[in-house]
């Protein structure tokens, strides 16, 4: 006669196995009894055929020339290269952030660059002066850990 603890373990294993088999059987029964296809590609094909409308994309001949843009219709000035900030503000901001980065790393004038793309010499000069002030303040703040 097996020990009562061993008998209890065997009984628990049998109950667990029975419940697992019932669960698998129930899942298979529900899958077979529903009208939903078992594979996703069949469902996608059926849904795409019945639910998606395909628009008429043909253009009338009289509208065709209007659809083509001229090759020479590019904008004159590049909005990415044009700085819309005031030169002194732009110089101070750019200098401050370059100085801050250099101050944190401890490499003075590593990323120092006071050149600009402003159109006039006066604007470039204002930018460079503000860049120097901003760089000095940013470098000081970077070393202080701000």
Which helices and strands, and how do they pair?
Blueprint: H1 4-33, H2 40-51, H3 64-67, H4 87-105, H5 121-144
Strand content: under 5%
**Which runs of at least 5 residues are low in confidence (pLDDT < 50)?**
none
Q: How many strands appear in the DSSP assignment?
A: 0
Radius of gyration: 37 Å
Shape annotation: elongated
Termini, distance in Å? 79 Å
* Sheet of most strands: none
Order of secondary-structure elements: HHHHH
- Structural class by sheet pairing and helices: mainly alpha
Helix tally equals: 5
Mean pLDDT: 79
Question: In which range does the helix fraction lie?
Answer: 55-70%
Question: What attributes characterize this protein structure?
Answer:
mainly alpha, 146 residues, 5 helices, single chain
Model description:
The protein is an all-alpha fold and 146 residues long. Among the domains are: 1-38; 87-144, no CATH class. Helix content is 61%, strand content 0%. The protein contains 5 helices and no strands. Helix 4 (87-105) runs parallel beside helix 5. The termini are far apart. The relative contact order is 0.09.
């Amino acid at each position: 006669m097996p020990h009562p603890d061993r008998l209890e373990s065997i009984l628990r294993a049998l109950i667990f196995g029975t419940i697992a088999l019932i669960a698998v059987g129930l899942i298979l029964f529900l899958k077979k009894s529903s009208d939903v296809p078992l594979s996703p590609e069949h469902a996608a094909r059926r849904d795409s055929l019945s639910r998606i409308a395909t628009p008429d994309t043909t253009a009338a001949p009289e509208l065709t020339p209007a659809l083509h843009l001229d090759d020479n219709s590019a904008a004159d000035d590049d909005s990415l290269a044009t700085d819309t900030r005031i030169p002194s503000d732009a110089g101070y901001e750019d200098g401050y952030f370059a100085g801050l980065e250099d101050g944190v790393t401890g490499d003075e004038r590593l990323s120092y660059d006071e050149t600009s793309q402003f159109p006039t010499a006066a604007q470039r000069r204002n930018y460079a002066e503000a860049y120097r002030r901003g760089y000095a303040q940013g470098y000081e703040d970077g070393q202080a850990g701000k």
